[in-house]
User: Fold this.
Amino acid sequence: QSETLDNIAPAIYEKVKDRQVLSTELDDDVVDGFDSREVFDLIRSINDPEHPNSLEELNVLREDHVYVDDKTNEIKVLFTPTIPHCSMATLIGLSIRVRLLRSVPQRFKVEVAIFPKSHASEEAVNKQLADKERVAAALENPHLLEAVNGCLKTIA
Amino acid sequence: TELITCTHTLKGHTARVWDAKWNPTGTLLATCSADKTIRIWGQGENNNWICKSVLSGHHERTIRSVAWSPCGLFLAAGSFDSTTSIWDRTDGEFECIATLEGHNNEVKCVAWSSSGQLLATCSRDKSVWIWEVLDDEGEYECLMVLGTHKQDVKSVAWHPTEEILASSSYDDTINIYRDDPHDWLCDDTLTGHASTVWDVAFDKTGDRLASCGADKSLKIWTRYRPGNPEGIQMKGAASKWKCTCTLSGYHTKEIYSISWSNDGYILTGDGSNTIHIFVETPTSTLNEGSFELVATKKDGHLDDINGANWSPLGDKTFVTASDDCFAKIWKLNT
Assistant:
């Protein structure tokens, strides 16, 4: 099976420590905003479609590539495929998008895109991930939905 | 007072609403949704808009687009299940009289020609199909498969009087087709948008076309016929379309829907939950268009606006369809 993998031996990176819960977050009188770490925590344990590793362990997702503007209701996630010709880039992006669609408040506009210059088909993949009609149709396709849910089953 | 006010909220769909269309007399609305149903709305007592029928159990996937025939007796619906259904309301109740099969995957848009004799459908399979209505019992024949787009075809719109069709695509272009009359020809391919062209709409005369897309801009195209005084060259009986106005900087997200009213107002619905209305300025010409913003409604919905259409009554009423599961009826107060 290993011959069919795009990247046979990807580098494994260290995971970030668990988020420290601040005392103000437990205080109901303090408004608790949405930040990049919170969004990162929602997606970092998504499994890679080809390896038994999380997207965080493969450095596909990094906390400093997650941007959240709580005031303008915008979330932007840039992901970095392990190799520039990774054929799974669209599926990875779709999994991140679906995870966020299912877990962040409706007020947020979510953008998922490839980290600049990290993939050969960056523009085409980004266009596809930004097209909500294609994303909606993909999720009604049983095979694609199964693949996406496979990546999301490792979510803690 | 606000320029744009919501008069009615149509609640009932249980998933995103993709499209909302008025019947030709402006007395009924059809909406369609990812919940796989079509809802028909009309006025009840106290002028309230209520759901009159739910058409369900027919399509297996999202219903993306609906269109009323010009006589108002038929409704076409295009679905992600790759088929188009035709509904007949002659006997009061809506009855499905035909299912048009042929597209390889999702149907994105359906539109009737002004005569009601032709129906256009388009799909992610990159093609536009033109169907002829053979009778009122549900007999349809495919006249032509137009495969000139390189990617998904997002939208189709017929000229208001002639057998001319415009289609817009994920390939960033718009195609214009004409019945030649024994063959359908692609007269022109309109380039200029920097990304997916989500929607197109003709003005009342059919001499201009408005388009909008993922590049957050709106473009106005003018038609030039053979022998035009401006000296624009074309082949044979073809007509040529040129971009004569671009409106950018108004929208902050993709523009999903555009509608041009008979009294000249251009309405858009976009991915930032916002409604924009533009009108032509007094100095505007066919060769050099000039349009100004009349009104904006921010947060008109809680989520993306997928469809926006003027009522045919010309009373400055319009409808919007949104990802927030609602459709809303609005009034422009001028």
